[in-house]
Amino acid sequence: MGERPEGLRARQKRETRQLISDVATRLFLERGYDNVTIADVASAAGVARMTVTNHFPLKEDLVLDLQEELVNGMARAVSRRAPGESALDAVRRDYGERLSRRDPAIPDADAGWQRMVLGTPVLRARLRQLFDQAEAELAAVLARETGDTGLAPRLVAAALADVERLLFEEGQRLVLDGEESEHIFAALAGTARQAYDLLEPAVGDYARR
What we know:
There is one protein chain. By secondary structure, this protein is mainly α. It folds into two domains: about 10-60, Arc Repressor Mutant, subunit A, CATH 1.10.10; about 65-205, Orthogonal Bundle (Tetracycline Repressor, domain 2), CATH 1.10.357. The protein has helices spanning about 10-30, 40-45, 50-55, 65-80, 85-100, 110-120, 120-145, 150-175, 180-205. The longest helix is centred in the middle third of the chain and has 26 residues, at about 120-145. The relative contact order is 0.12. The mean pLDDT is about 95.
């Protein structure tokens, strides 16, 4: 069966959220992150200040507005893994699929955005927090799937989350080096292959369904 059509209220909510995010990003890039307030964003977007904070409780999330994919992506891939797939297999496959569809959560050719994130301590800290949350979500799924409450789920989650973090940082580096989008995605595919191959002997069979 196909997905249910999006309702009017859900579509309006999604469109408002996207509008706020787009306006905030433009203002941050024009004026600098620290020089823009939530009130500035609300005014420029033509919405109430509370509407902004309802969608983005933290100011930094106006910049890092794809946190859902960052936090839940690996855990979701593992929980939905196919018969015969291990945790590593699922995360590797999911990353390859994200590269193929040019997932916006993967650093692309927006150098101004990347410089803003890397040059703003609160944004760097929030990004690190999101990756830590992703690791915790993955560890919880692995523990639930395997029934193991010991070290292994946390250790495997840490290893896979470190690869995800490394790939994100490598993407940022390539963007700031001025590489074209196609080269960035091709390079990340090669780096991902190498990273997951290195983990394969240690955790390749863990949580195989």
